[in-house]
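2 proteins. here.
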Amino acid sequence: MLRHPNCGRLLVSSVLGRLPLGMVPVALILAARADGHSLARASLLAALYGITPALGLPLLGRLADRRGLPLPCHLGAVLVAVGLSTLALAGTTHLPLTAVCVVLAGAGCPPLEGGLRSLWHVVLPDDAHVRTAYTLDSSTQEIVYVTGPALAIAMATCLSPAAALALAAAVSLAGAAAFATARPARTWRAAPRHRERLGVLRPPAMRPLLFSLVFLGATIGALDVAGIAVADEQNAAWLAGALPAVFSAAGLLGGVLFARLQPVTAPGPRHLMWLGAAFAAGWLPLLAPLPAPAILVLAMLPGALFVPLLTVASLTVTTLAPQGTTTEAVGWMSSAIRLGLAGGTALAGPVGGHFAVPLMAAAGGALLLSARIAPTPAANAV
């Protein structure tokens, strides 16, 4: 797939432009702590950043579907750069200004994920290559949330938290510019769309699918808290970072295997239902009292299923999307997952970080996916 013209550039620049999504929450916490804020207040700032892309991505995605990709990508990157650069220069001591900058940096996230998935159908020759590209794209998202925090911590340690924020601003600008100036991104235009009150949400199957993605995001948000709680219980501080890292590594492996073994025909609602059920069942062994090494090994099962489930869900979202709304549809998908991340984190804290929270969230998503999710005749992927 990567041998085809422009594919490598589009994928790498998209990942680069999304790297701040992994960098900024950690950099914000470190910057706020350095400015004398409590951990609770610093975490609230990080949570605010985590939620605001859920508001901006569908709007920028709609703008991309109407006006092309360069305008929303450049506009979003400038908003991110302004917000993060102001934080790097002014610090976080003035809370109202800090909150405004955090909202700008979050809501301005360029629609690179949706744009990339709209372009796969243009730069690749057939549906089999497109499905492989979706799997690879879903797998590389794990890189954002593993490399991003590590890069932010390294910059904050070697230089300062402000330097980490400044680097995130530069990375966002560089990634969005490289993506938006690629020939396919400059020339792509969405198919004409019909004016409808509900737009992307019009297909009846789209709403339960998006709600299921909220639950899917909640499993990941709860996992981070569960890692911290288990690390405290077992007096193994290393487990707090190792658990999400192992989960992400298993996701990369699962994505590669899924790309190699996926069926010749496009995955359908039946695949989505069975993947959702298997993902929920994968959390059951973690309910037992286990030593730390066993927890890491067992976390690999839901981790390996996460990327295939996300891939098939992404394909289904773009298939269900009405004509001319693909980029906006992926924005709604990203918003649903990010809302779930925030909700899972918020819910897991009060219950002590128990693995029952990701299990219940995954089970809720599986129930929603068991609804009949099939593309309507009017739906069109591109």
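next one coming up
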Amino acid sequence: MTTKDLVLIALFAAIVAVLGVFPPFTLPLVGVPITAQSLGAMLAGGVLGARRGALALVLFLALVAIGLPLLSGGRGGFGVFLGPSGGFLVGWIVAAYAIGFLVERAWDRLTYVSAFVCCVAGGILLLYLIGIPWVAYAAQIPLATAFWGSMPFIPGDVIKALIASVVIVTVARSYPIIAAQRAS
């Protein structure tokens, strides 16, 4: 791992933290807040690639776990991982890796549509596959209730995927970080 890799990982961990400045909106049924920070997972994976994107989220969540109030609403500490949103938090690492993996595979033909599909597959579908069962467990509610209670998040996540796809393609065209990683 180079110094450049470490800087990019730290930079994207900081971007995820900055996205936490936007106040959360918590849906009453499931207790999981709507935040801008899941956009950070999409951006980290799509811009940095699988390995560095996932490591950026590992760094961010390690800082949260030791108590820094970096999550939206000023939350932090290990306890947040045990609450209803814990599965989604850990899922950010997997989502960033998956999005990065898919973007790397689509690199030579990357378009806004393919970047959007990568963000939806990793940042919504996969993330929900990890997060929803944890919501059901942590909140002690049936899985179906957790599933249906999470559906109001989909429109916002689609908007985040659209924003991320525009940023990913724009960065790929102007400063192709993943291409440079593949070349080295």
